């Protein structure tokens, strides 16, 4: 576990024959025998968490060549005007490239992004009571969904749709451990970047994420990261379905977002909160909800600054 946290150790352990296979198989056997809280399980999952860090960038995999193909598709479509020029980025769901079939019998690093591994993490999320194990499970999934390529898209769909893991991830947001909440919130933020998941996520995790923004206290070391992730997730999901999302814009939650905008000790969370409010105000249906809560153009201008003034010229 200690060795896997270092860059050289991580690379060496990934390449060592049989090591990942043994660690994964041992963890799965413990889950199958109803021993989710063994210290050895915690160590195994922490190892797998560490070995999945920067996996898409450091280890050639089934998605590497597809990412090159996807960029070619993106460039072709950009040149012919098929992409929205405002986005300025590739959207995974617009690649139009089929995802690869996974190995029937994974070996070595391919274990780290196999559906059997995903199921193991989700099973432990449901049955383990150890915070360190829960954090490591969410952290491994967070690593697999962190890139901007096809692996993130495929892993997010596998977790959220095929394996129906969203309720178990949402449950992490209710933990008494700020580190568990941080990992769960970061994972949901990664997954919310993919439009194909928006409808499913809006129905299954919006209540928990909005509750996080409404009631999370600022007395933990992870507060800034948690709020940043929650703001980005809320922004992605509400803007994809404003009619559904407006019911979550409570006065309590909006007041907390306003406080975040003014929080000089958490600059990333403050920026995420400003972007959230700016996008909400840019939608006429959501803007009416904000106005009912006492927001006006002057208030928005003072909170969001230049970002808001650029957008407000459209109205």
UniProtKB/TrEMBL annotation:
Cross-referenced Gene3D superfamilies: Leucine-rich Repeat Variant (1.25.10.10)
Protein location: Cell junction
ARM repeat copies, ranges: 164-192
Gene Ontology annotations for the cellular component aspect, listed alphabetically: adherens junction; cytoplasm; nucleus; plasma membrane
One Pfam family matching this protein: Arm
Signal peptide: none
UniProt GO BP: cell-cell adhesion
Keyword Repeat set for record: yes
Presence of the UniProt keyword Zinc in the record: no
Family matches, as InterPro entries: ARM-like, ARM-type_fold, Armadillo, Plakophilin/d_Catenin
Similarity comment: family membership: Belongs to the beta-catenin family.
Protein name, per record: Plakophilin 1
Organism, scientific name: Nothoprocta perdicaria
Gene, per the UniProt record: PKP1
């Amino acid at each position: 576990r200690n060795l896997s946290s270092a860059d050289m150790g991580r690379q060496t352990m990934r390449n060592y024959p049989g090591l990942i296979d043994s660690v994964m198989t041992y963890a799965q056997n413990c889950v199958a025998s109803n021993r989710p809280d063994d210290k050895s399980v915690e160590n195994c999952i922490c190892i797998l968490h560490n070995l999945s860090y920067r996996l898409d960038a450091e280890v050639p995999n089934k998605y590497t060549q597809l990412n090159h193909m996807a960029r070619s598709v993106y460039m072709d479509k950009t040149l012919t005007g098929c992409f929205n020029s405002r986005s300025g980025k590739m959207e995974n769901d617009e690649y139009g490239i089929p995802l690869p079939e996974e190995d029937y019998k994974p070996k070595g690093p391919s274990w780290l992004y196999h559906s059997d591994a995903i199921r193991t993490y989700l099973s432990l999320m449901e049955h383990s009571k150890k915070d360190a194990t829960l954090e490591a499970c969410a952290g491994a999934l967070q690593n697999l969904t962190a890139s901007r390529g096809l692996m993130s898209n495929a892993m997010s769909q596998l977790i959220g749709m095929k394996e129906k893991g969203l309720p178990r991830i949402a449950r992490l947001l209710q933990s008494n451990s700020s580190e568990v909440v941080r990992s769960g919130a970061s994972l949901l933020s990664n997954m919310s970047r993919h439009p194909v998941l928006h409808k499913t996520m809006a129905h299954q995790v919006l209540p928990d994420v909005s509750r996080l923004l409404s009631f999370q206290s600022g007395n933990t070391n992870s507060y800034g990261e948690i709020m940043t992730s929650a703001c980005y997730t809320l922004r992605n999901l509400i803007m994809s379905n404003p009619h559904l999302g407006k019911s979550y814009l409570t006065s309590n939650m909006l007041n907390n977002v306003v406080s975040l905008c003014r929080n000089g000790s958490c600059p990333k969370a403050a920026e995420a909160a400003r972007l959230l409010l700016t996008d909400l105000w840019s939608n006429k249906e959501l803007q009416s909800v904000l106005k009912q809560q006492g927001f006006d153009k002057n208030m928005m201008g003072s909170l969001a600054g230049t970002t808001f003034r650029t957008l407000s010229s459209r109205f």
